[in-house]
Design brief:
GO molecular function, one term: DNA binding
Strand content: 25-35%
Organism: Paramicrobacterium agarici
CATH superfamily: Methylpurine-DNA glycosylase (MPG)
EC number: 3.2.2.-
Number of strands: 9
Radius of gyration: 16 Å
Protein name: Putative 3-methyladenine DNA glycosylase
CATH topology: 3-methyladenine DNA Glycosylase, Chain A
Distance between the termini: 29 Å
Number of domains: 1
Number of helices: 3
Order of helices and strands: HEEEEEHHEEEE
Shape: globular
CATH class: Alpha Beta
CATH architecture: Roll
Family: Belongs to the DNA glycosylase MPG family.
Length: 216
DNA sequence: ACCTAGATTCACT
DNA sequence: GTGAATCTAGGTT
């Protein structure tokens, strides 16, 4: 079954494991870059998730999270980084998947140009800010429809094994780091290294022969 | 108007 | 592993 907007009509928490392995493309004058998503983090804004930008209701900044699913929520952070989320769930139910890591599978020369400091291709989109640069996402792209040009979101090959663990970067406030809403493909080298969590656990039954899961 | 925290990255050691 | 660089939104004066 194809990945389409209706696929995204549920919570990011449930969609996270499902969307790993999906392909996101962005076309500019330079050409098309496609990234296979290997790491995603779910955020919801219904008041139970203090780590979410939408925790305290709709603002000008987070309005995209309250819109139709399948759009891009892009925001600026740490004074220098843009991060991109795939908006999930029906409108008015803020829910999104932060794209934290991926593998460039098309347009690698374009991505290398944009990420000139990357030491290897592995690092081109390893980390949320890096992924945004490699894909060519800017703050102005906030609100863009991911199912229309210049973007494209489609299904990729299902990963064999998916793990989950506490999210990265959320302050421990409100115990928000207790939600195991970070999802990644087991063993994939393009999963972000930042603040890796010592303890991870199996998220989806898709994983076979679960030995002790290895953090990314 | 001012202040602070933040869904981070890079260059070093 | 650590520190610096950087800017925007949101809350507070």
């Amino acid at each position: 079954m194809a990945l389409e907007r209706s696929t995204l009509m549920e919570s990011a928490v449930d969609l996270g494991p499902e969307l790993l392995g999906s392909l996101i493309s962005h076309t500019t004058e330079e050409g098309t870059v496609t990234i296979r998503l290997t790491e995603l983090e779910a955020y919801v804004g219904n008041g139970v998730d203090p780590g979410s930008h939408a925790h305290r209701g709709k603002t000008k900044r987070n309005a995209t999270m309250f819109g139709e699913p399948g759009h891009l929520y892009a925001y600026f952070t740490y004074g220098m980084h843009v991060c991109g989320n795939i908006v999930c769930a029906p409108a008015e139910q803020p829910s999104g998947l932060l794209m934290r890591g991926g593998e460039v599978v098309e347009g690698i020369d374009i991505a290398r140009r944009r990420r000139a400091t990357a030491k290897s291709d592995r690092d081109l989109a390893r980390g949320p800010g890096r992924l945004a640069v490699a894909l060519g996402i800017q703050l102005a792209d906030n609100g863009s429809d991911l199912f229309a040009a210049p973007f494209e979101l489609r299904e990729g090959q299902k990963p064999q094994s998916v793990l989950s663990g506490p999210r990265t970067g959320v302050s421990g406030l409100g115990g928000s780091d207790l939600y195991p809403w970070r999802f990644w493909i087991e063993g994939d080298r393009t999963v972000s290294p930042y603040k890796r969590h010592p303890r991870s656990r199996v998220a989806v039954s898709r994983s076979r022969g679960s030995r002790r899961p290895r953090p990314p």
